[in-house]
Amino acid sequence: MKKIQTDCVYLEKFIRNIGKIVTEEEKMRWFLLRASIVVGDRVQNFDGILQDQFFTALESLFFKKEDPLETSDEEFEGICRLVTEKLGRDA
């Protein structure tokens, strides 16, 4: 509940100050603030999904290997590509 109240305060400040924004820096700051208010929770959800997919892929690789400590850098890079491609398809 506190986050929603905080977001509302920032949004009210944004609305009051929108006519006073003059520099590109100020525009960017307010733009990013507004974006974080509007989509912040959803982005955090994507972060959780991404972590889950990486963990699942790494876990699978771990159990496929006879000696997981001999996993090559290329195999780890392959996991990164796999998860990135899957995210692109699901987006």
Short description:
The chain is mostly helical.
Q: What's the helix and strand layout?
A:
Layout: H1 2-17, H2 24-64, H3 73-90
Helix pairs in contact: 1-2, 2-3
Helicity, as a percent range: over 70%
Measured between the Cα atoms of the first and last residue, the distance is 29 Å
For the largest beta-sheet, the strand count, sense and barrel status come to: none
Basic shape: elongated
Question: What oligomeric assembly is this protein in?
Answer: single chain
Number of helices: 3
* Global mean pLDDT: 80
Verbal overview:
This protein is an all-alpha fold. The protein has one domain. The protein contains three helices and no strands.
